[in-house]
Amino acid sequence: MVKILVTGGLGFIGSHTVVELQNEGYEVVIIDDLSNSSIKVLDGISTITGKTPIFEKLDLKDKAGVEAFFAKHSDIKGVIHFAASKAVGESVQEPLLYYENNLATLVYVLKELKKLPEASFIFSSSCTVYGQADELPITESAPVKQAESPYGNTKQIGEEIIRDTCRVTPNLKAIALRYFNPVGAHESGNIGELPIGVPQNLVPFITQTAIGLRKQLSVFGDDYPTTDGTCIRDYIHVVDLAKAHVVALERLLKNKNKGNYETFNLGTGTGSSVLEVVKAFERVSGEKLNYKIVGRREGDIISAYADTRKANNELGWKTKLTLDDAMRSAWKWEQKVRASE
Ligand code: WQD
């Protein structure tokens, strides 16, 4: 079996990707430091697939630990790298924590991959690199803009580190996947998003409000130049997103890549406003959501949604699940998490 390392594999997107890798017959090794995830996710994964991935608790800032890991697992053929801190607001307050945790760790992993006979590397990037794009939908050739936060900057710098390394490392090839807004959960209800503390993102805040954990959803502004005045985003179901990681990895493993560093936008290609997301949730859950319109959130861009042609044509991948599917699965997951508390 082809062995694949998934760093941050107990996280939201990481765990869903591990499931899809196992479904495709890969042997999966997970590294996670459990700083923003729970070991219980391992049970959720094995309940779905019937297979328990190899798990090693490791903080990738531990350079010697990373070296020891790769010495032990020298048969790794590919890495899907999710491990990173991702709270935009926190990154503004703690920039050095973000530069160390998101970039020093990336350097340590890449240094080990350089030593392997050959390696395929998939990087978890984000549409945040585009800032407020001048043209919509957003293509991969849209200019990378001044990041709105240190978190976004670590994605931009991370891509440059990988690009520059691949350029002079013939045995290393990489793809950066620029996600739009990942939402939803696995249909089984066994894995999903587990935000720690008060959710920053829209959909977990919606489901926690509906379940009674939060009093009311604040909608950050309805005076934007959009159809209903609220911001527009491209909400992609996390299972579609996870499947795209397997497809991208196989593009590299099967040497179908064009050049040894590529980027792909991963979205549905459709923009949805905040109020449209709220309405979709109410429709599929039958719950009336308690929300109020408040002032704009600093740093929010007006609108972002993907031009999906490159991923459709080059990866042969497109989303299959809808916003309603995402709301339905997110609600099922929320209800299951609260029932088990
Ligand atoms: C979506 C919309 C908010 C919460 C962030 C990161 C991005 C990526 C995805 C990691 C916006 C509105 C939100 C709330 C609201 N993360 N909103 N009330 O900001 O598009 O992207 O998460 O890669 O890098 O920047 O996602 O879910 O926070 O917000 O009205 O309580 O929902 O204003 O318009 P965002 P989000």
Automatic annotation (TrEMBL):
Pathway recorded for this protein: Carbohydrate metabolism; galactose metabolism
Cofactor annotation: NAD(+)
Catalysis performed (reactions): UDP-alpha-D-glucose = UDP-alpha-D-galactose
Domain NAD(P)-binding: 5-328
Keywords assigned by UniProt, alphabetized: Carbohydrate metabolism, Isomerase, NAD
Family annotation (CDD domains): UDP_G4E_1_SDR_e
Record bears the keyword Cell membrane: no
GO molecular function: UDP-glucose 4-epimerase activity
KW NAD (keyword) present: yes
Enzyme class label: isomerase
EC numbers on record: 5.1.3.2
Record-linked InterPro entries: NAD(P)-bd_dom, NAD(P)-bd_dom_sf, UDP_G4E
Recorded family membership: Belongs to the NAD(P)-dependent epimerase/dehydratase family.
UniProt subunit comment: Homodimer.
Protein name: UDP-glucose 4-epimerase
